[in-house]
TrEMBL record:
<keyword id="KW-0418">Kinase</keyword>
<protein>
    <submittedName>
        <fullName>Serine/threonine-protein kinase Nek3-like</fullName>
    </submittedName>
</protein>
<dbReference type="GO" id="GO:0004674">
    <property type="term" value="F:protein serine/threonine kinase activity"/>
</dbReference>
<keyword id="KW-0547">Nucleotide-binding</keyword>
<keyword id="KW-0067">ATP-binding</keyword>
<feature type="binding site">
    <location>
        <position position="33"/>
    </location>
    <ligand>
        <name>ATP</name>
    </ligand>
</feature>
<feature type="domain" description="Protein kinase">
    <location>
        <begin position="4"/>
        <end position="258"/>
    </location>
</feature>
<dbReference type="GO" id="GO:0005524">
    <property type="term" value="F:ATP binding"/>
</dbReference>
<keyword id="KW-0723">Serine/threonine-protein kinase</keyword>
<keyword id="KW-0808">Transferase</keyword>
<comment type="similarity">
    <text>Belongs to the protein kinase superfamily. NEK Ser/Thr protein kinase family. NIMA subfamily.</text>
</comment>
Length: 265
């Protein structure tokens, strides 16, 4: 901790705090995420998993891991600082002004590239949402917050332990089926829809109504000016049976929208 000077608190959550820090030696800025370490052994393991999984990632579109250390009862994860803030904030800034299609395609293609890297390593992110997707000062997208991530085939009933924003959760999770790579695809579909409309695809006054809408895959139609391939892609990402959804590999290589996306990478 002595190697860094703290500039400010940039996020506060159930875990602890996210601080903007500067390395005293190199002057480089980083985000330092402090996580209160639990006493219970299995929960301790779970807390450490975030640092372990993030440290295995190495990709343009994933927040870069710098180092992790433990001090007293705190786990500190030091990572790349994304000065553009999170995507939810960026969406809210727009108020009602729609994003241009080039920005939508560029950001979404970068999200898919980052998520494909995660899946290629047989890891599931499990909390993809606009609040966990960051922008650098240059406007590059970086996936972050590996606090819910796990190695493939690790999870049984994820819904029971779910505490976050429910808007991005796939139908199979509400049905208590295992979390799989296609559940991440559903969540990215929700982010793509948000970029296209500035609204959530599935929204309701209560959890019960929300879950019903999600499990029917019923979302308000997309504006007609969007490219046909993109509307088709969203329709497929929102298939209620995960087997019918395209994988990230398909989205980026063989789907009808993939040329459009790759042209923006
Ligand atoms: P939580 O588990 O509370 O969701 P996050 O890792 O998402 O933790 O961090 C919480 C908040 O801190 C984020 O929503 C964001 O505002 C800020 N933050 C986290 N990591 C970064 C980063 N690498 N660059 C910029 N801001 C970040
Ligand atoms: Mg988060």
């Amino acid at each position: 901790m002595e190697s860094y000077s703290v500039h400010k608190v940039i996020g506060e959550g159930s875990f602890g705090r996210a601080l903007l820090v500067q390395c005293r030696k190199t002057q480089e800025k980083y985000v330092l995420k402090e996580i209160q370490l639990p006493k219970n052994a299995s929960r301790l393991e779970k807390s450490r998993r975030e640092a372990v999984l993030l440290s295995t990632m190495k990709h343009e579109n994933i927040v870069a891991f710098h180092e992790a250390f433990e001090a007293d009862d705190l786990l500190c994860i030091v990572m790349e600082y994304c000065s553009g803030g999170d995507m939810l904030h960026r969406i809210r800034e727009q108020k009602t002004k729609q994003f241009c299609i080039d920005d939508i395609l560029k950001w979404f293609a970068q999200m898919c590239a980052g998520a494909k890297h995660i899946h290629d390593k047989r890891i599931l992110h499990r909390d993809l949402k606009s609040k966990n997707i960051f922008l650098t000062g240059k406007g590059t997208v970086k996936l972050g917050d590996f606090g819910s991530a796990c190695v493939l085939n690790c999870s049984k009933a994820y819904a029971r332990t779910y505490v976050g924003t429910p808007y991005y959760v796939a139908p199979e999770i509400w049905e208590n089926k295992p979390y799989n790579n296609k559940s991440d695809v559903w969540s990215l579909g929700c982010v793509l829809y948000e970029l296209c409309t500035l609204r959530h695809p599935f929204q309701a006054p209560s959890w019960k109504c929300l879950i019903l809408k999600v499990c029917r895959g019923a979302y308000p139609p997309l504006p007609g000016h969007l490219p046909h391939e993109l509307r088709l892609l969203l329709k497929q990402m929102f298939k209620t049976d995960p087997r019918d959804r395209p994988s990230l590999r398909t989205i980026l290589t063989s789907h009808r929208a993939s040329r459009l996306l790759r042209a923006h990478l």
